[in-house]
Amino acid sequence: MASSAASDPFYVARDEVQSSVDEMSARYEEWQAKQASGANLARSASFDDLQQKLKEDTHSLTADLRDVDASIRAVEKHPERFPHCTPSELANRRGWATRMRQQVRDVKNAMSSEAARQRLTKDREMLQMEEGAARKANAEENSRLLGTNKQVQEQIVQDQDEQLDDLARVTHRLGEAAQAINVELYDQQRMLGELDENIDRQQDQMNFVMGGLSRLLKTSDHKQLCTVIVLFLILIFLLMWNLNL
């Protein structure tokens, strides 16, 4: 009997299936908690991963339970090979397999239910609306920034133009001032030239007079001539002063 029990494939399959069902149940509880939360499931990458793993679990367990059913049918077909498996044990195996299958079916039904589909569809639509609004806001912000940058550039160009205009006006005024200075310098040079010419003429006339006086007085000493002239002028001044008295 011990040998028959050891060769019974049900025990190995049962342990593997039970472990997989326990893992699926833990994931399903997490899936239900996310469904009950107010979070947007379409935005949650962890929810997508969880749902994908649950689909893989149900698919794998469905295949494993078919193998379990096959092992139960093998015992039913050849009871002489498994004398340890009493009718009560066989009924327990069928009941266990039915419970496992029901748990898998419950998970599959919950994931494919209309409520779950509507919830995910609604969340996806909401996410699309939010992303669309965000894209629109980003586009408006980019447009505003571009407009602001354009205004700043235009203001910079305008300021530069005004500065160039101011520089041109200053340059023009400096040119006019330089031209006026040149005219003034030319006039002063002309006046200095005329003054030099007048001085030269007066000097020539003085030399001519002094020469005449020198010949008249028969002397070439200019100091003596100047003394004579000064005394002569003093004499005239005294005569005029006496006449006024």
Automatic annotation (TrEMBL):
What GO terms fall under cellular component here? Golgi apparatus; membrane
Q: Does the keyword ATP-binding apply?
A: no
Q: Which UniProt keywords apply?
A: Golgi apparatus, Membrane, Protein transport, Transmembrane, Transmembrane helix, Transport
Query: Which PROSITE patterns has this protein been placed in?
Result: T_SNARE
What is the membrane topology listed in the Swiss-Prot or TrEMBL record?
Single-pass type IV membrane protein
Q: Which residues cross the membrane?
A: 225-243
Q: Which InterPro entries match?
A: SNARE, Syntaxin-6/10/61_N, T_SNARE_dom
Ranges where the T-SNARE coiled-coil homology domain occurs: 154-216
UniProt-annotated location(s)? Golgi apparatus, trans-Golgi network membrane
- One GO biological process from the UniProt record? Golgi vesicle transport
**Matches recorded under Gene3D superfamilies:** 1.20.5.110, 1.20.58.90
A Pfam family reported for this protein in Swiss-Prot or TrEMBL:
STX6_10_61_N
Q: Does the keyword Membrane apply?
A: yes
Family per record: Belongs to the syntaxin family.
Please identify the protein, giving its name as recorded: t-SNARE coiled-coil homology domain-containing protein
